[in-house]
């Protein structure tokens, strides 16, 4: 069995695509996933399954449409992939500290992509790199570092235009999900 982290894109944002986490947890359990746990209202679900990524994504997206009545993208990572993402941040502690010192709120985010976009799209994102907004691609992830704020960020808005489904989480959420996945793993032993 594999521990997965599912990220639901665009739920509970501005009063749209509302899903209560208790109902979401029940839905995941009904379709056969075990050890289901949700974290905050932005659509982060940890669970265990022996199914493979493409099947899980299609199943969850289909079930959300059937149960809640709207279509959303689901981004999925295994707990080992998640641990790599949080453990191998390409920004140094100094770069992060410098950004945090001048940032209005969180400074480090990760955009998680369903798949790697075309090289042309990746190169196009470079036009939005500034002295206040930087990014680094690592496979299916884009690490985003903001000296000011993610709000009104041209870089963040254009990450959404990479031509593949994407959802963004702040570093605090990323690390909390790592901790929760490790707790599930410990209970398995």
From TrEMBL:
It comes from the Bacteria. Pfam families: DUF1697. This is Cytoplasmic protein. The lineage of its organism: Bacteria, Bacillati, Bacillota, Bacilli, Bacillales.
């Amino acid at each position: 069995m594999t521990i997965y982290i599912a990220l639901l894109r665009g739920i509970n944002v501005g009063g749209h695509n509302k899903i209560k986490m208790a109902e979401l947890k029940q839905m995941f359990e009904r379709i056969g996933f075990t050890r289901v746990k949700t974290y905050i209202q932005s659509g982060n679900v940890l669970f265990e399954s022996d199914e493979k990524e493409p099947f899980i994504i299609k199943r969850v997206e289909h079930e959300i449409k059937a149960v809640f009545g709207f279509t959303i993208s689901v981004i999925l990572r295994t707990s080992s992939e998640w641990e790599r993402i949080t453990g191998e941040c390409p920004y140094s502690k100094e770069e992060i500290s410098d950004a945090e010192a001048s940032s209005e709120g969180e400074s480090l985010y990760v955009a998680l992509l369903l798949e790697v976009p075309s090289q042309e799209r990746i190169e196009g994102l470079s036009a939005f790199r500034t002295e206040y907004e930087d990014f680094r691609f690592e496979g299916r992830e884009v690490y985003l570092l903001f000296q000011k704020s993610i709000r009104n960020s041209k870089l963040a808005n254009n990450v959404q235009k990479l031509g593949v489904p994407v959802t963004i989480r702040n570093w605090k959420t990323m690390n909390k999900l790592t901790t929760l996945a490790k707790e599930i793993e410990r209970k398995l032993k």
